[in-house]
Design brief:
With about 190 residues, the protein is mainly beta. Helices cover about 10% and strands about 65% of the residues. It has one helix and nine strands, in the order H-E-E-E-E-E-E-E-E-E. It has an eight-stranded antiparallel β-barrel with strand order 1-2-3-4-5-7-8-9. Strand 3 and strand 4 form a beta hairpin. The longest helix has 19 residues, at about 5-20. The protein is elongated. The relative contact order is 0.20.
């Protein structure tokens, strides 16, 4: 026989969870920002020897976000596009460098955040995924640069400060999984 007390307890818990989600505030926003991150790429010469190299990316970005606020936490869903430039310099015995190489791409992120006592601050984490294309040119005399097209998934820490009801500053720091990189993003958001 099923005891009614545990069933009643589960129903009460379900109602509490449902009512907190039913009271969620939904916020959509657009934003403009800046992203920067390094990447390790390989430059090969005409004999196919590989030289580890570093590329540094600097890109403006444009964001569209959706946040579900509850009393103490919430979820975010975001899409973004970026275009900008990258600098690359080879290491080892190969002399190869390029400045202001065109870069473009798009990405998205999902995440969770906590709202401390101040509703103006959100602290959380998100998982971005981005696809980017860099227009590296091949080294003179033959060879090639790896990772012209790259799909990367990362993990970042989010910090968001809501300055007014319609205006916020969002900053993220983390990295792409499997790559030696540190991703930094900062943008300003306007509520729609």
């Amino acid at each position: 026989m099923v005891h009614p007390k545990p069933i009643a307890s589960l129903l009460v818990i379900g109602l509490i969870v449902f009512s907190s989600w039913a009271q969620a505030e939904i916020q959509r926003s657009v934003g403009v920002g800046f992203m920067s991150w390094p990447e390790q790429v390989d430059v090969t010469d005409s004999t196919k020897r590989s030289f580890p190299s570093t590329a540094q990316f600097y890109t403006p970005s444009f964001h569209y976000g959706h946040r579900d606020y509850r009393n103490r936490d919430g979820y975010l869903y975001e899409g973004y596009a970026f275009f900008g430039s990258a600098d690359i310099e080879s290491g080892g015995g190969l002399t190869y460098f390029q400045r202001r190489v065109p870069v473009y791409g798009f990405g998205g992120a999902v995440g969770w955040y906590f709202r401390p006592n101040s509703r103006q601050v959100n602290i959380g984490f998100s998982l971005p995924m981005q696809i980017r294309h860099a227009q590296w040119t091949d080294p003179p005399g033959g060879g090639e640069v790896s990772n012209k097209n790259l799909i990367a998934i990362g993990a970042v820490i989010d910090a968001r400060w809501r300055l007014t009801r319609d205006f916020a500053i969002n900053q993220r720091f983390g990295g792409f999984l499997g790559y030696k990189s540190a991703l930094w993003m900062m943008n300003v958001e306007w509520t729609l």
